[in-house]
Amino acid sequence: MLPLVKPYLSPREELMPEIERVLYSGYIAEGEEAWGFEEQFKKFIGNPNTLVVQSGTAALHLAMLSLNVGPGDEVISTPMTAEPTNTTIAFTGAKVVWADVDPATGLLDPRSVREKITERTKAIMLVHYAGMVCDMDEFNKLSEETGVPIIEDSAHCMGGKYKGKVIGSNSQYTCFSFQAIKQMTTIDGGAIAFKNPDEVEPARKLRWFGLDKKVPRLQNDITRAGYKYGINNITGVIGQVQLRHAQEVIDKYISNGKYYDESLKGIPGVTLVPYYKSTEPSYWLYTLKVENRDDFCKMMEEADVTASPLHHRSDTHSLFKESKCELPGMDEWYKSFVHIPCGWWVDEESRERIVEAIKRGW
Ligand SMILES: Cc1ncc(COP(=O)(O)O)c(C=O)c1O
Questions:
Q1: In contact, 350 and 295? CB cutoff 8 Å
Q2: Which of 4, 89, 179 to mutate to test the pocket of ligand 1 (most atoms within 8 A of CB)?
């Protein structure tokens, strides 16, 4: 069965000697290989103010800590995401305030966010869900007008673009995940990119218990408790090798995504998702809306292709019961959206087969 997600790993003959070299080098903790990956990732996203971390969740947490989000604060967020986007807000003690999504795209609706801003709002959490980029023109305007910072959760959108530039330097914080099923994986890993260079050093300390790596350990003075969020050299070297292939791999997702955009036009029962002005998706998952979704998924299964909605809406968890509110856009979207395989493992024959199956109907 053609899967919806599949990790890309660099060729064995390239990756394994590098892993072995570092594994037996005598230095496997955070060091040169980890920082080497950090330098290269900075170049990939075009933002020198970037830290690599153990996970996308750690990246989101560092964004919260940088903003001092805590009890009594509110963070406006989307229910259309994977759980860590919102559990991270919850574990700071802040309240998640749901804004509605645009029912045409499933992405946070800036008009709804505007209505939810109060004097307690500490941040707006955007998710470039499934690799589709949010309406950044409107969100940038909103952030400028209100002074509320934006955190872009770009766990699904490495290589997506806004105004022709790769996602990673537009908002105050952009968070990435290199977890096992993402477009580029280091097995587990993540990164946080800052707009304000002054925020990097404090966050770097929080990445390592609150200690300053530039000061000898015996002379270090912790002023704020930090975490163990740095990556080790094995993750670092995997990242360096993976990054050599990342653009080529992402380009395959994009090529398949564009193929579906063209080939699925005008098919009865299918509604394509429009992309916002000045944005270019990276198509981690191809997302569309269909009538009779259960029948659609069954038909795809019979064609040996996985099709499904991947994430459960976050606002239904008991953890968020105090945040419960009406979200008509989300209700509408959630009924009909579905993903089909779009990644590097989908070759031309497979994507044609998928389109033909959809054209035959369900
Ligand atoms: C939208 C989103 N945000 C954040 C995360 C957290 O990333 P990680 O698993 O690397 O902690 C994930 C993935 O798991 C995700 O899908």
A1: no
A2: 179
